[in-house]
Amino acid sequence: MTLDLNSDLGEGFGVWRLGDDEALLDVVTSANVACGFHAGDASTMRAVCAAAAARGVAVGAQISYRDLAGFGRRFIDVEPERLADEVLYQVGALAAFARAAGTRVSYVKPHGALYNATVHHEAQAAAVVAGVRAFGDLPVLGLPGSRLLAAAETAGLTPVQEAFADRGYTPAGTLVPRGEPEALLTDTDAVVARAVRLATAGELVAVDGSVLATSARSLCLHGDTPGAVRHARAVRAALAEAGIRLVPFAG
Length: 251
Fold this sequence. Notes:
Strand 1 (2-9), helix 1 and strand 2 (30-34) form a beta-alpha-beta unit. By secondary structure, the chain is of the alpha/beta class. It has helices at 21-25, 42-55, 80-100, 112-120, 122-135, 147-154, 188-201, 228-241, and strands spanning 2-9, 30-34, 58-63, 105-110, 140-142, 159-164, 203-205, 211-213, 218-220, 245-246. Strands 1, 2, 3, 4, 5, 6, 9 and 10 form an eight-stranded parallel sheet that branches. Strands 7-8 form a two-stranded antiparallel sheet. The two termini are 18 Å apart. It is 39% helix and 18% strand.
């Protein structure tokens, strides 16, 4: 059995730093690199791409609304044509830094509010896919059952289902909104149990106790949650002990 571990990285900006990119790159197999719209800047993007390439970690474009002030966690009603262009802009920017580091952008994943919007928002999901398609044939990472993955498949791109080790799930299989009770799992044992159950049984447990079946090929470990590095190291060790081989889903 195989599984990909991904994490949101490069989410600092200027003198501000968020998370421990170097430590997480020693654990994950795919890096969702912020492309400058919700976080990240030129030097950060280049540094993360170089560090990922040195470790054989796949580089993915973590695209977002243009929302530095809100860290990309506020819905913005962007017209589809502009959103597609902004997706293309972000992927292209990261591709330049990946190329300079001797690697390439292997997939695309929306961040924050854009990720959540494209679960149900048909027009924005289609716009994200249009932006990716304009760049090239890249897999799209997203929530199972989302409009985003459906649109990616229709456009001839590879839709890749992911799950979250450290986020709460509703009984409908969507993420509990940040700021609500049980939105985040902060206990390392709980995060590890979620990861192992996903990898070995294909199951997630929602906040009401209901069991959700999943075929996720990639598991996200957020880099900005409390104890992120501790969680990630414990998850990797537990998955290895369970006989799960950790490999990038793309690249």
